[in-house]
Amino acid sequence: MSGILYLITAGFIPAMAAVIIAYGLVKKAPVYDYFIEGARKGLTTAFEILPFLIGIFLAINCLSASGLIGLINLLFQPLFSLLGIPPDLLPLIFLRAVSGSGSLMIVQNIMETAGPDSYAGRAACVMSGGCETIIYVLALYFGVTHTKNMRHTLKGGLIGYFTGVIVSLLVCRIL
Amino acid sequence: MNAAWSAIFLLSFLYACISGRLPLFSETLTESSGEAVQFMIRLAGIMAMWSGLMEVAERTGLISKMSRILLPVTRLLFPRLKNQEALSSIVMSFMANLFGAGNSSTVFALRTMEKLDAENHHAPSASNDMCTFAVVNMAFAPVIPVMMLQIRSDMGSTDPYSVILPSLITAGSTVIVSILACKILERRS
């Protein structure tokens, strides 16, 4: 069963590319010319988001280099032990919202210390799979638009994020 | 964003002074912009590739064909959106996310945001559709967290797949709550 799932997951993206190209050939379109044109547009977009990336990387790196993230963890620790949440998960819960690559390292750390099949280890996996790095995503998404005011996007994102955190903690306890 | 960004920087600076981490802080300051550029370069290649393929799909009419099939689904989330290209772009972003396409799904999302922005006439304030798409797309998670499973089995887990069902339940409820949150928040503003 899981073998088939693996195959579908690994095959989806290449299959999508193949369908697009094959469809273009059937329609007798100049596929390669279109591809080059589109690729040029993509590079322009990549360059356009660079200022936003620099800004957001700066903020995130400052937050962790100054140790402020650690302080936030420390402040929340009593509340978490009261709720029966393993303290190992704390840095993940807060870091995941701002940095994806940083949080993957934390997940590995948790699995090493608590074991991959422990409650903390499983909850860490579920949490990091389901929760996106909101700050980075918003900086990118709104970097390509002309929008100055993103209205309720951040609020909605945070609601979704903490729903993910809470549900993953509950589900891993039950299942 | 202006206030939040400034606050993060200044608070971090103050805390670095107090906790004696100023040397590390200063090092971070000089290195982080280079890190951002490196990240962009890695992203740029895959972005160009997918933008190229999407261009082919758009100009040959494959995209508008797809969106017509998936219209019933997208109409629920984006009732007022009529632009076919934007709609199918949304669907492709969601699909790429479900299949764990990583940076490829980011590319689809960015293209979708551009289209929704055009649909919003490049107004300074985000449209409901832009907010809903951003929030819901963030909530989507890969059906099979392939990388996570790999790490788990590398670490000697007795049952690496034990996280699949919890992940699905978590992602499902996050998506539903995110949709509801958007629909409620947009009515209030």
Task: Describe this protein's structure.
The complex is a heterodimer of chains A (175) and B (189). Chain A has 175 residues and is mainly alpha-helical. Chain A folds into two domains: 2-48, no CATH class; 50-174, no CATH class. Chain A is 79% helix and 0% strand. Chain A contains nine helices and no strands. Chain A has helices at 2-26, 31-48, 50-65, 68-83, 90-95, 100-114, 119-130, 134-141, 153-174. In chain A, helix 3 runs antiparallel to helix 8 (134-141). The model of chain A has no long low-confidence stretch (mean pLDDT 85). Chain B has one domain (23-188). The two termini of chain B are 18 Å apart. Chain B is an all-alpha fold. The longest helix of chain B is centred in the first third of the chain and has 38 residues, at 22-59. Helices cover 79% and strands 0% of the residues of chain B. Classes of the chains: A mainly alpha (175), B mainly alpha (189). Chains A and B meet through helix 1, helix 2, helix 3, helix 6 and helix 7 of A and helix 1, helix 2, helix 6, helix 7 and helix 8 of B.
What would you say about this model in short?
The complex is a heterodimer of chains A (175) and B (189). Chain A contains nine helices and no strands. Chain A is mostly helical and 175 residues long.
